[in-house]
# Entry
Amino acid sequence: MISAIEKDIVYLLERGDKKAITLLYENYADSLYGVIQKIISDEDTAQDVLQETFVKIWRYAKKYDSSKAKLFTWLYRIAYNTAIDKVRSLKNKTNKEVQIETSSVYKITTNQLNDDVLDIQKHLSTLEEKYQIVINALFFEGMTQQEASEELDIPLGTIKSRLKIGLRELKKIYNP
# Structure
């Protein structure tokens, strides 16, 4: 059974009436905050997630379909997913910290370089130009496949195919 207040909120949401957000906050903020706190223990972060939740609710208000889910179920899913996204985001930030002090990236000595591949650009010039362009963009200019696709105005699938074929041709040179 749908309560009168829920009917009013759904009616206002469907019409994009800003009164809906006030009614939602007054009637559901505490419950949604409880959902968020079960996932995020830090109070400030939980408050931020609650705010993000209400922004998402407003943004997707016209997509709510009362025939698919009760209003609270829909609100709960948005709050829950927003909290989970925040946890993942925070976890990714801490995992991406780089420890330069212990890095050995720049400690390559000349005797560690393979003399067989130092002439790669000479061998690259033996390939068809379309493969050279792609390999140069990806390996020597440091572009991603998407960036190369946009910069060279070549479809992404073609970039991938040319890379694969170009590398296969180079492999024939180095491993005859």
Notes: The CA atoms of residues 37 and 46 lie 6 Å apart.
